[in-house]
Amino acid sequence: MTERPYSTSAYREAARTLAATGRRLYRHGWSPATSSNYSQRLNAGHAAITRSGRDKGLLQETDIMVVDLDGRPVGDGKPSAETLLHTGLYRRDPAIGAVLHTHSHAATVLTMHWPADHVTLEGYELLKALDGIDTHESRLTIPVFDNSQDIAALAADVDRQLDAGRITHAYLIRGHGLYTWAADMPACYRQLEALETLLAVELDRRRLG
After folding, report:
1. Is the CB of residue 172 less than 8 Å from the CB of residue 111?
2. Which residues fall in the annotated binding site for Zn(2+)?
């Protein structure tokens, strides 16, 4: 029997966490139907990630699989089509332990109806929920990437923008959704919840003029 390149207990814990997190995000309306994908680092070379096409409101531990950091599946199953956007973050920064991607109403409308290549959040108290921000007198610029559907090219573009220091906590894909990451799942969920709330507030403010 071939020894697994990751701890079985770490995988089981990650699968439980990811399934529970997915159902929680679904209840907020941020991950409708089979949209979205979530992952958690297992070790220096592997991550647990949602399988492709799974209903996030019904997400179970069996809907989580393992990939290496080149995005190749370990064992049976088809990982999310956007796996490289997760593994690219894990490869570049060993401190990243979790990545969440959602498809919310606010993120979709904001990025489809305003053509800018970024969304700026400024002056919000809730920005302090993000790692490293300790005052509401802060400005967060979230880059918006076009939804090319070429995931390898998009991952390379994201990597270049990270190298240039233009991305800190998150990025958006136009008409698609939000990506954020952190050292562990609790911190990642906290950031995601803050960002989704602020995007919804920003959308309402723009509607009100």
Report:
1. yes
2. 101, 103
